[in-house]
């Protein structure tokens, strides 16, 4: 891998542009990914916030579901925010009937979990010991439970719910750091990608 990793942003639906900007601010090269050929050229992938049911259906229509599952299985670093977190979950609760994910993180994610109480809110969370990060939650999921290989990186009130996790090269947040102009979460992911490149 070159020293500046190419990080794809899955551009089927969601806030793609904001992730491209945050990745660029964090020192990576970002490229929109819609097709299997574009995926093959990316060192890593960000799955944006948006609507997980739409991302799933479009991934099927664009024949991206299986190629993405395969890359994740092969160890490609990936980061999902909000709907992207849902897409990286091995199991989901409150999905629509038949809803599928790419999977990869051994966790159960509850869709729209915070959304039933309040559609949108912001809170400072301590992310991976980096100090307070402003977290924007929009009809956000929370992580109901994690397997033993999953590291919890942040929790939010109410209830100390898990809102950020990492399992090896996979990172997921319930919130949207791409909307705040603070690129620390993206920088954390870019560093994960750089380390992964050095270890291969
Ligand atoms: N802001 C978001 O990404 C919301 C996620 C959305 N509720 C879903 O199920 O995908």
TrEMBL record:
<dbReference type="GO" id="GO:0042823">
    <property type="term" value="P:pyridoxal phosphate biosynthetic process"/>
</dbReference>
<dbReference type="InterPro" id="IPR029062">
    <property type="entry name" value="Class_I_gatase-like"/>
</dbReference>
<feature type="active site" description="Nucleophile">
    <location>
        <position position="82"/>
    </location>
</feature>
<keyword id="KW-0378">Hydrolase</keyword>
<dbReference type="GO" id="GO:0005829">
    <property type="term" value="C:cytosol"/>
</dbReference>
<feature type="active site" description="Charge relay system">
    <location>
        <position position="176"/>
    </location>
</feature>
<feature type="active site" description="Charge relay system">
    <location>
        <position position="178"/>
    </location>
</feature>
<dbReference type="InterPro" id="IPR002161">
    <property type="entry name" value="PdxT/SNO"/>
</dbReference>
<comment type="pathway">
    <text>Cofactor biosynthesis; pyridoxal 5'-phosphate biosynthesis.</text>
</comment>
<feature type="binding site">
    <location>
        <begin position="50"/>
        <end position="52"/>
    </location>
    <ligand>
        <name>L-glutamine</name>
    </ligand>
</feature>
<keyword id="KW-0663">Pyridoxal phosphate</keyword>
<protein>
    <recommendedName>
        <fullName>Pyridoxal 5'-phosphate synthase subunit PdxT</fullName>
        <ecNumber>4.3.3.6</ecNumber>
        <ecNumber>3.5.1.2</ecNumber>
    </recommendedName>
</protein>
<keyword id="KW-0456">Lyase</keyword>
<feature type="binding site">
    <location>
        <begin position="138"/>
        <end position="139"/>
    </location>
    <ligand>
        <name>L-glutamine</name>
    </ligand>
</feature>
<dbReference type="GO" id="GO:0036381">
    <property type="term" value="F:pyridoxal 5'-phosphate synthase (glutamine hydrolysing) activity"/>
</dbReference>
<dbReference type="GO" id="GO:0006543">
    <property type="term" value="P:L-glutamine catabolic process"/>
</dbReference>
<comment type="function">
    <text>Catalyzes the hydrolysis of glutamine to glutamate and ammonia as part of the biosynthesis of pyridoxal 5'-phosphate. The resulting ammonia molecule is channeled to the active site of PdxS.</text>
</comment>
<keyword id="KW-0315">Glutamine amidotransferase</keyword>
<dbReference type="GO" id="GO:0008614">
    <property type="term" value="P:pyridoxine metabolic process"/>
</dbReference>
<dbReference type="InterPro" id="IPR021196">
    <property type="entry name" value="PdxT/SNO_CS"/>
</dbReference>
<feature type="binding site">
    <location>
        <position position="111"/>
    </location>
    <ligand>
        <name>L-glutamine</name>
    </ligand>
</feature>
<dbReference type="Pfam" id="PF01174">
    <property type="entry name" value="SNO"/>
</dbReference>
<dbReference type="GO" id="GO:1903600">
    <property type="term" value="C:glutaminase complex"/>
</dbReference>
<comment type="similarity">
    <text>Belongs to the glutaminase PdxT/SNO family.</text>
</comment>
<dbReference type="GO" id="GO:0004359">
    <property type="term" value="F:glutaminase activity"/>
</dbReference>
<comment type="subunit">
    <text>In the presence of PdxS, forms a dodecamer of heterodimers. Only shows activity in the heterodimer.</text>
</comment>
